[in-house]
Amino acid sequence: MSSEKPAVRLALLGCGTVGSEVVRLLHEQAADLTARIGAPLELVGIAVRRPGRQRGTIDPALFTTDALGLVKRDDVDVVIEVVGGIEPSRTWLTEALRAGKSVVTANKALLAEDGATLHDAAAEGGADLYYEAAVAGAIPLLRPLRESLHGDRVTRVTGIVNGTTNFILSSMDATGAGFGEALDEATELGYAEADPTADVEGFDAAAKAAILASLAFHTRVTAADVFREGMTGVTAADMASAKEMGCTIKLLCIAQRGPDSTGNESVSVRVHPAMIPRSHPLAGVGDAFNAVFVEAEAAGQLMFYGRGAGGTPTASAVLGDIVAAARNRISGTRAPSESSYAHLPIRPIGESVTRYHISLDVADRQGVLATVAGVFAKHEVSIATVRQSGREEDATLVIVTHGAPDANLAATVEDLRSLDIVRSIASVLRVEGGV
Amino acid sequence: MSSEKPAVRLALLGCGTVGSEVVRLLHEQAADLTARIGAPLELVGIAVRRPGRQRGTIDPALFTTDALGLVKRDDVDVVIEVVGGIEPSRTWLTEALRAGKSVVTANKALLAEDGATLHDAAAEGGADLYYEAAVAGAIPLLRPLRESLHGDRVTRVTGIVNGTTNFILSSMDATGAGFGEALDEATELGYAEADPTADVEGFDAAAKAAILASLAFHTRVTAADVFREGMTGVTAADMASAKEMGCTIKLLCIAQRGPDSTGNESVSVRVHPAMIPRSHPLAGVGDAFNAVFVEAEAAGQLMFYGRGAGGTPTASAVLGDIVAAARNRISGTRAPSESSYAHLPIRPIGESVTRYHISLDVADRQGVLATVAGVFAKHEVSIATVRQSGREEDATLVIVTHGAPDANLAATVEDLRSLDIVRSIASVLRVEGGV
């Protein structure tokens, strides 16, 4: 396994759950990595906030609190960032890329909010920017989108990209528990953080959706372009209703290309809970697993499935990128750079065609259905199915629509809310996956 | 979309189902491909056996019967081969690679039988050799194995890589039909060829297994190294028995690394029908879809799912490779070459640890189970479950074993066959996926 080539020198920014796994794997797999790269990898420094902390068997001399200083060192070839957040990571990585150093990062927030700055710096410095670990952890997903499907036209990407919420929804589906109970279980088992906002409100999924949409459609999409609705409002009754329809509920990120209302090609990106049929490949993705379903004109339907988070799976993706970056440095080349030539406009959520599942508590009177149906017709929303179950004084109407612009559906719900005969709107959920 | 860079010139060998789709997509996606590559693609010639045949709107001047002459032309940068078979494809591709021309091929048979010759020629000529379409059609699978998982250690690859047999087994599972009836249906619908031998006897899957094992374990594995058992012996009774156990039956290719009987790291590659639990992600892969389940030390469980065959999906994979090869030519670089440094030995099937499901028709006498159990014990095979159902004169014993070397299991079955009390062995099937 010896090699005459000089080592490729790595600087690691961050040494938490993922960082420490990266160090462990670099050490354990050293012989294999050297053989695959054609040169050894050498870790020359690790930037941390608290250098005094004991970190297993890692040589204490490697630690520094001066991340920017480490990035600027002449003996650093590849910078690996597993800190997260916008600043100071953006400053470090921009500095590295401009100086021609390769960057491997797992920082989805930065890529989704301001990926352009990183891509521009990479172009300026002629450097590699890899971020496989930023979306869906261990699943090799970005490289296929970036490269394998480059001869095809991707039309839609539908993903379960947040493990915490998938764990919660899978548990609600399996046990009939409500959101609060399932969240408590997830927190106890370490699947949810003490403050679960980023997960349950869909911020994490929205960042990943922006990155996926950018790659799939060759267009810069940021987190601000993503319509986002969390899943805290999904109730046990919603899940029961989904089951009756042969569905389950998942928090989906959906990125789609297609003509807008004026016929121009555009991109729509959204994150929200949705009912999907149990026969859909995404419906069976349980526990904290992630999966991304890709539809392309020539390839047809593809799905990628695996662990979306966790120190070791994420470190696997980081290591894969390190190997790629190191090989490129040795052969004096670089990976395909960002492809954002298409510049497709972003379609607002109101123009996205979706389907709604609406559950209404109504007065059990003659003519209720006719009145309700009239509201749908007024907004040009076509009804696919209606289920009515009467009780003594009240009745429940469950209506599933055909596809219609989201704005029309939202206006329909608003109008229903103002009807006397509608006592309450028990739930409104989007329906996906061709029910 | 204009580009100042000169065109990358392509020669296509073969213009059947896949080839004609490649031509169509090259034409339809021309503007996008040019933008993604940074230069236009130009098809300069198509080698076919019968040039007179009408082929849609393709310029007849492109056709030639002289494939070798086309490959040797100075104005050819990338050679695309979709003919199949060992010769003359091997001669054409070796010629191209040695001359430094990039090769994109879908030829699984050639890669599985003599990939070494192609890889050596690529190394000699400093040329790219891409073959994403050779395994699992449209599914981006080889690039993730070749690159994304290069920082990890793959331990096992379990795949459904033949669409014809998956269609047949899915149909047997859904309808209770026997093999013959399901095969007839597959033939009628165009899923099975007039001579289905390559599919149903597992030759096609074995070639793909060799390619997957080579990539996963950085070791040259050929089709001759793969243990192969077809699925023509799977009966409606087997499928019914699988259902009773909460399983279904799939034709699997399994490539695994692990210590052999002397403790040395080795590789085992096999193709055979097997029972897998319905809860396994591969169990839900229906119709003619393919899926490959990958287990790696750090990444954990991954699955890749999509269309494994068909002109358009396969053409998508070919186009992705063409884009990669063209980008490399323009930037004067090449893809990571073959990684076969590990040179792991191939473990014979007898040493592979598997589990058996054995169904016996036995005489309904006292002591039968004790006698049968004694045979298992003699060969050091541990029994996991026994189910006995008696009839007037006969009884059926269904035995599922724990994991044991395949040779011990085979010897057990041989001994059972010679027992007086065993009237017949109704079926023997391997069991996978942790039932």
From TrEMBL, chains A, B:
The keyword Nucleus does not apply. GO terms for molecular function: homoserine dehydrogenase activity; metal ion binding; NADP binding. GO terms for biological process: methionine biosynthetic process; threonine biosynthetic process. InterPro entries: ACT-like_dom_sf, ACT_dom, Asp/hSer_DH_NAD-bd, HDH, HDH_cat, HDH_CS, NAD(P)-bd_dom_sf. L-homoserine binds at residue 193. NADPH binds at residue 108. Its EC number is 1.1.1.3. The keyword NADP applies. Pfam families: ACT (PF01842), Homoserine_dh (PF00742), NAD_binding_3 (PF03447). It catalyses: L-homoserine + NADP(+) = L-aspartate 4-semialdehyde + NADPH + H(+); L-homoserine + NAD(+) = L-aspartate 4-semialdehyde + NADH + H(+). SUPFAM superfamilies: ACT-like (SSF55021), Glyceraldehyde-3-phosphate dehydrogenase-like, C-terminal domain (SSF55347), NAD(P)-binding Rossmann-fold domains (SSF51735). NADP(+) binds at residues 13-20. Keywords: Amino-acid biosynthesis, Metal-binding, Methionine biosynthesis, NAD, NADP, Oxidoreductase, Sodium, Threonine biosynthesis. Pathway: Amino-acid biosynthesis; L-methionine biosynthesis via de novo pathway; L-homoserine from L-aspartate: step 3/3; Amino-acid biosynthesis; L-threonine biosynthesis; L-threonine from L-aspartate: step 3/5. Its cofactor is a metal cation. Catalyzes the conversion of L-aspartate-beta-semialdehyde (L-Asa) to L-homoserine (L-Hse), the third step in the biosynthesis of threonine and methionine from aspartate. This is Homoserine dehydrogenase. It comes from Actinoplanes friuliensis DSM 7358.
